[in-house]
Amino acid sequence: METPKHIVSAATVILNEKNELLLIKGPKRGWEMPGGQVEVGESLKEAAIRETKEECGLDIEVTRSAVCFRMSVNRFATHCS
Question: Which helix (H) or strand (E) holds 24?
């Protein structure tokens, strides 16, 4: 199997009726939105639903897409563009 050239991830922004944001506490990066890597053959929407179920036990419906960004990592620095 070839190493992927690009890692694609999906995350969810989940708000309740009080407009409170759901965050989970990750073991390494601290507080973050539920999400993770998109598996081969999976859409961003499917990945967001699956990752939220795996991490939070919640069944969600994706109502709209929010933000896409690219993060480049090299041996000197990490930056978003």
Answer: strand 24-26
The domain spanning residue 76 has which CATH number?
3.90.79.10
The confidence band for 14, taking pLDDT boundaries of 50, 70 and 90, is very high
Structure tokens at 39: 């598996």
CB neighbours (10 Å) of residue 56? Answer: 14
Count of structural domains within the chain:
1
In a domain, 13, yes or no: yes
pTM surpassing 0.90? no
Strands (E), the chain: 9-11, 24-26, 30-32, 35-37, 71-73, 78-80
The domain containing residue 65 runs over which residues?
Answer: 9-80
Q: How many CB atoms lie within 10 A of CB 39?
A: 12
